[in-house]
Amino acid sequence: MRTFDFAPLHRATVGFDQIADMMDRVLTNDAPQNSYPPYNIEKTDDDAYRISIAVAGFSEPDLNVEVRENSLIVTAKKADENEDKKYLHRGIATRAFERRFHLADHVRVTGASHADGMLHIDLTREVPEALKPRRIQIASQNVIATDVVDAKTVN
Predict the structure, then answer these.
(1) What is the CA radius of gyration of the chain?
(2) Global pTM?
(3) Burial of 13 (C-beta count, 10 Å sphere; 0-12/13-18/19+)
(4) What is the per-residue burial (b if ≥16 Cβ within 10 Å, else e) of 32-64?
(5) Whole-angstrom Cα distance, residue 155 to residue 153?
(6) Where on the phi/psi map is residue 116: left (φ > 0), alpha (ψ -120 to 50), or beta?
(7) How far apart are CA 43 and CA 10, in angstroms?
(8) What is the 3-state secondary structure of the chain?
(9) Which are the contacts of 138, defined by CB distance < 8 A and separation ≥ 6?
(10) What confidence tens digit (pLDDT) does each residue in 108-152 have?
């Protein structure tokens, strides 16, 4: 396993303490990545995103969308179905799953919809006014001393 030294990054960054935590989480993730169910992440506007998850075979009561500690957690569990059916081929997977998405700061889930076998989750990034870029006025150094007394007038 490789180890990376992120010390040079600390010289050029201020206040990015979470980057080290994120890199540790990514690099030490020994669990194999699950590819079920397939999903898309699209950017729908400058500050809007949509996650679309293929959930064929699941109905709305089977699905659960939850936000907890900057994580979006999508779970599904199929209700007990009739086991009397005999399949010749079963290609539609309706097994239970849990899919987690780590949300960046100031990203909020605005809604979810289920249509045509797809679960759509809409997200928006809402940056507070205090964190938006602003222009800083530079003060000039041409300060005239008004309290200086002329030496000729004193004597």
Answers:
(1) 28
(2) 0.64
(3) exposed
(4) eeeeebebeeeeeeeeebbbebebeebeeebbe
(5) 6
(6) left
(7) 30
(8) CCCCCCHHHHHHCCCCHHHHHHHHHHHCCCCCCCCCCCEEEEEEECCEEEEEEECCCCCHHHEEEEEECCEEEEEECCCCCCCCCCCCCCCCCCCCEEEEEECCCCEEEEEEEEECCEEEEEEEECCCHHHCCCCCCCCCCCCCCCCCCCHHHHC
(9) none
(10) 999 999 999 999 999 998 888 887 788 888 888 775 555 556 656
Q: Which of 45, 64, 40 is nearest to 118 (CA)?
A: 40
Name residues whose C-beta falls within 8 Å of residue 113's C-beta, 6 or more positions apart in sequence.
119, 120
In order of start, what are the domains of the chain with their CATH numbers?
A: 36-128 (2.60.40.790)
| Residue 75 tokens, joined | 């779970």
The residue with tokens 């003060």 is 139
What residues have CB less than 8 Å from 15, skipping those under 6 apart? none
Q: Which residue has the tokens 């206040």?
A: 15
